[in-house]
Hints:
It is a single chain. The chain has 10 helices and 2 strands, in the order ααααααβααβαα. The chain is an all-alpha fold and 301 residues long. It folds into 2 domains: 144 residues, no CATH class; 145 residues. It has a two-stranded parallel sheet with strand order 1-2.
Amino acid sequence: MPIKIKILVSFLGLVAVSLVYLGLKNLKVDLDLKPNQANINTPLERDADWDNDGLPNREESYWNTDPNKPDTDGDGYLDGEEVASGHDPLKPGPDDKMEKNNLTKTLSEIAFAGIAEGSLKPTSPKYVESLNMVVDGLFTQSEINLNPRNEISTKVVPDSYEAINIYKNTIYTLIESMAEKEGESILKLVDLIDDTNFFDDSKLKAGEKSFQNLHNFSLARAAELNRNIATLEAGPVPEMLSEQHRFIIKIFKSVSISYASLANADSDPIQAMLSFQNIIILFTERLPDKLTEYIKIMQDR
């Protein structure tokens, strides 16, 4: 079953889990002040982008931006550009970098607000539309959380037979090894995820064997990936391979961030679920295409 459908089906159960996790006394719902809930009942054409700012109407509602104004905060950057780069579309720059959001807490707050004003009650005629809007927003925020914030650093050198040969024997070999190791790690990760109950807060904590195994494995994978990424960034890269090289580093950085998120599944299980999905998508869809292109260039040299 696709993970988005799982989230939809499990939504009300997750609200209950979030309640246990956060505690009723810690939840302060203010429908007028919560930016993520302010427009939840607004009728919008979900896939349209009225102001052509790169942020569809459904996401304008999530971010509480103006769907008819391409630059809501007036700082010279389109709302879609700001969200994609991890900046707050409601706060003028330069000090508008967004912190990573706890998606489990966000879901809990949105659920309470939506149920209170009616759109997230199962009996509401706008229930499915509102629920889809919430899920789309969570996926958008997850992408921001898992996107490498720092610029990809590479040591580009002029193309030459010697530079390409050095790259082949060192960096290329390491990338092949990293890809092979990640394939093996994903098989192990699938088993660990299967043993870990993300929907039972009492099981998702330090001391519980299944979670502790996932936590230790994920931390070790993130540490190993970061060491290898440092080598990839420090090694000389022929200019002709620099674009593919940066893309591969970015993928491995996102995988590393995802493992770190999985290690903290006890504090944000929703993000952990989406981090697992991110690893699978990166390794089975995005990385193979780039590696195929990359390997072809290397074999032609």
